[in-house]
Amino acid sequence: VQEPEEKKIALELLETEQAYVNRLHLLDQIFYAELLKEAKNGKTVPEEVVKMIFSNISSIYQFHAKFFLPELQKRMEDWNHNPRIGDVIQKLAPFLKMYGEYVKNFDKAVELVTLWSEKSPPFQELVADIQKRKVCANLTLQHHMLEPVQRIPRYELLLKEYVRKLPPQSPDRDDAEKALEMIFMVAKHSNAAIAEMERLQNLWVVYQRLGLEDDIVDPSNELIKEGPIQKISTRNNSTSEKYLFLFNNMLLYCVPKVIQMGAEFQVHLRIDVDGMKVRELKDTQVPHTFLVSGKKRTLELQAR
User: Fold this and answer.
1) CATH number for the domain including 38?
2) Any idea where the DH domain is (predicted)?
């Protein structure tokens, strides 16, 4: 007998969950536990660093191993009498908000692994030793750390498929649709919250580098690009190093400060994007040059 399509997907959810719990076990109970133990002995890196690398992986592991996986297993064993998983996933969805913390911390965590592997040979050796074990399947710590980041999108995909394949009169239809809606909200919530938090954080750092000039500080601004540029002075045929910040609404033309008291740059000119013109110059003597003109002034600039 051909298994119904929706059961196949529910089984795939269970199998991937089992594999995922094994991966979380490796991250929390092996990598985290062993690295923390060595850090406490003062042999590798500061304890704080290990905690920052693994963020709230322990809570995530406990939740999946002690709650979600067993609930799914019970459901699948009982499938022939009671073909449903929607209710269990509804219980799961609110807890997925825990991932916000982990995902938000992920880039920083990977950076710390790289940094401390260079700084501390004993740390690097311990990580390498664990990576050699069979349980790691020849994959790096960073690779395993990525797994939780990818798990929520995976739930979303599997559940979408599941809802698509459910027969119209399935007893699980209402629950499954509601569960999908909840998962969708969590996925959106964590990504949006993280993106917004990072944007504000980065914006604040830029404002500090610019000396917090009040007419520039605005939380709705978005930094698009920044970098050094050469200003060409046609009068005395010289170039000088300047720095540009391009926001969604303005271009700031800045001069690096020699003595950095508080600010790194001084804003010399602000050109509103509204009405700004940029024109490339085809100058063979001086490559990569362009003109930027605002209402008051035109600048001749050269990129690297």
Assistant:
1) 1.20.900.10
2) 5-193
